[in-house]
Write a structure and sequence with these properties.
The chain is mainly alpha-helical. Helix content is 71%, strand content 0%. The protein has nine helices and no strands.
Length: 163
């Protein structure tokens, strides 16, 4: 997953893309992490190039969410062994995750909505939308950022519902 050292021209291109991302009002923290991750890992550089060349706003939002996913994946230094999940339990687990996310979005809306949460966490709004609209298991890092921004019990939240 490690990239070769990026050539100076490619690094310069990253900084130019970062300037365009700033002009598009993406969070500064996200842009900084994206550039740092792109320099160190394969994939993010290519996604940033895709973002700059994409004309469709919806597709650009999807690319931003993909970049955030890769930033989170690359930031994880330890890989805990995942518990074994029985196939027959998947429906119940999915219902619990959906119920958890539905209750969390109520809290988010009471405290200013997704735009405010994006400002507080530095997570781009498309990534937060994907988080709340998907039925997937939340990432621990994402939950911790949300818990901190909303002043919720981060330990309980992250240990109960994260992968």
């Amino acid at each position: 997953m490690k990239a070769e050292k990026l050539a100076p021209d490619h690094q310069m291109e990253l900084f130019e893309i970062a300037t365009s991302m700033k002009a598009a009002k993406l969070p500064t923290n996200f842009i900084t992490q994206a550039v740092q991750t792109a320099i160190a890992f394969d994939g993010v550089y290519d996604l940033m190039k895709m973002w700059i060349s994409e004309g469709d706003a919806k597709e650009k939002s999807e690319i931003v969410a993909d970049i955030q996913d890769m930033i989170d994946d690359c930031a994880q230094t330890e890989r805990a062994e995942a518990p074994y999940v029985k196939f027959n339990d998947l429906d119940e687990i999915a219902k619990n995750i959906r119920k958890f996310k539905d209750s969390l979005i109520i809290e988010v809306n009471q405290k200013g909505g997704l735009t405010k949460l994006s400002e507080l966490t530095g997570i781009p709004q498309p990534s937060l939308s994907r988080f709340f609209n998907s039925g997937s298991m939340p990432r621990r890092l994402t939950l911790l950022k949300i818990a901190k921004a909303l002043k919720l019990d981060a330990v309980k939240m992250a240990t109960e519902w994260s992968r």
